[in-house]
Every structure is written in structure tokens, then in C-alpha cells.
């Protein structure tokens, strides 16, 4: 994990712990903090480090005296990369464990799975990564960038002279809401910049997919230079290696 990411996580966690707490949370001996990241399944390789950083931040805060004179107590659950299970674990943390706040999710589909639970029980979720936008809830603190803050600036650069003056784009993503929504936004943006549909290729793969050699072969076949990938998660490490080897 990059040093900057780690420092940001510490700073964010420390500031969040200082927010106003409910009377129930304040009256307890400790302040419970829910940590809801997949520790098994497809997303474990991405989400486990977030759990580790949250625990490190909690240890650091506790070593300095805690919050409002109380120690933070982490409550860790494993939704196991199972989207319906995310909702069950969210309800468990809020209704049974009585946590004051939850740090959790990674994929947008997991966030959308738990959102009704947080709104029903008036819980607070800190969502750690970029998201596709088109959603706003007082029960979610969206810490990451939306497409207009991340994907569009990247494409603007690729279109520029400094970025190579790209004329054709290959939009590659995992088949779920974040990549599809982001690519929908990118396609509209590219249209506004004069890029036609015939110069935009869009491909989606299932979670756990690894046959990127076939995708690279198809890119070469149609002689289109790969320009942009979205919906990145654990597969990106493998995907990037294949693309780099292919030139």
C-alpha cells in the first residue's frame, strides 16, 4: 500500500472518530467501530488491506488515549465477496453490535446492497474508494472520486497532444454497476469530443476473469490501441501485466 494512501487512511479514521456520537454509543465502555471488508472470495485481495489499515488506525488512536476518553473497539465481519451477505453483515453491525460507524465495502454493488440497511437503521458508512456517482445519501460518506474527478480528466489527457492525441478507445471493465456507469459517462463525453461509436470498443468480464490474452488478441486484431480500463480490482494486476507484455 502506498505511503500516501496509508497516511490518508490514518487521517480520515482519526477525524471520523471525533464526530459526535449517539448517547448509546457514548454511554458504552468502548466505542464500537464496524469494519466490513471482504476477507475471503474474489475481493479479498483488495479489501483485506483496508481492514488492516483500519485496525492500525484504531490501535494508533487507542494508544493516544482513544476518543472522548474511551477506547475504540473494532468489530470485524467478513462479507466474503457476497453482495447479499454485505447487507446481512451491515444489519448485524448496526442492530446487534451497535457500532457507532462502519468502514466498509469496495465495489459499488456491495455499497448499493447495504445502502437500504444504513438508511433504515440510520447508520453511517464510510465508503473508501472511487464510485460512479448518480447516488447521494446522508448515511454514506463517499471518500473517493466520481468519474468527473477521475475518469474524465484522464480521458481529456489522452485526447490532448501531450497524452498522444488518442482517437480510438477500448473501455474494459468488470461486469457490474461501476464500470458500466463510468463507461456510459465516458462514452457520452467522447461523443461530445467528436469520437464516434465505431471508435469506441466496450468489453466487460465477470469477477474472477483471467483470460486477458484473448482480449489483447482481439485488440490487436481490430488494430485498436488500448486506452482506458475501468472497474479495476484484483484482476488489474494480472490484466496490466498481460497488456504490458503485449505492448
TrEMBL record:
This is Urea ABC transporter, substrate binding protein UrtA. Residues 1-27 form the signal peptide. InterPro entries: Leu_Ile_Val-bd, Peripla_BP_I. Gene3D superfamilies: 3.40.50.2300. Keywords: Signal. GO terms for biological process: amino acid transport.
Amino acid at each position: 500500500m502506498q505511503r500516501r494512501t496509508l497516511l490518508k487512511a490514518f487521517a480520515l479514521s482519526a477525524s471520523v472518530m471525533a464526530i459526535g456520537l449517539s448517547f448509546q454509543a457514548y454511554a458504552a465502555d468502548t466505542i464500537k467501530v464496524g469494519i466490513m471488508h471482504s476477507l475471503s472470495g474474489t475481493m479479498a485481495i483488495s479489501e483485506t488491506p483496508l481492514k488492516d489499515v483500519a485496525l492500525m488506525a484504531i490501535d494508533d488512536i487507542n494508544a493516544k488515549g482513544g476518543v472522548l476518553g474511551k477506547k475504540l473497539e473494532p468489530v470485524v465481519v467478513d462479507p466474503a465477496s457476497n453482495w447479499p451477505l454485505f447487507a446481512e453483515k451491515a444489519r448485524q453491525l448496526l442492530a446487534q453490535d451497535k457500532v457507532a460507524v462502519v468502514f466498509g465495502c469496495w465495489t459499488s454493488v456491495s455499497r448499493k446492497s447495504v445502502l437500504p440497511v444504513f438508511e433504515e437503521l440510520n447508520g453511517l458508512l464510510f465508503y473508501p474508494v472511487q464510485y460512479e456517482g448518480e447516488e447521494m445519501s446522508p448515511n454514506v460518506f463517499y471518500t473517493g472520486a466520481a468519474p468527473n474527478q477521475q475518469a474524465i480528466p484522464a480521458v481529456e489527457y489522452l485526447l490532448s497532444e501531450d497524452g498522444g492525441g488518442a482517437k480510438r478507445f477500448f473501455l474494459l471493465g468488470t461486469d457490474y454497476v461501476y464500470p458500466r456507469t463510468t463507461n456510459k459517462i465516458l462514452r457520452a463525453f467522447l461523443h461530445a469530443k467528436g469520437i464516434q461509436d465505431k471508435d469506441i470498443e466496450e468489453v466487460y468480464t465477470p469477477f474472477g476473469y483471467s483470460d486477458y490474452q484473448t482480449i489483447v488478441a482481439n485488440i490487436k486484431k481490430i488494430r485498436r490501441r488500448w486506452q482506458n480500463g475501468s472497474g479495476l480490482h484484483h484482476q488489474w494486476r494480472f490484466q496490466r501485466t498481460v497488456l504490458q507484455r503485449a505492448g
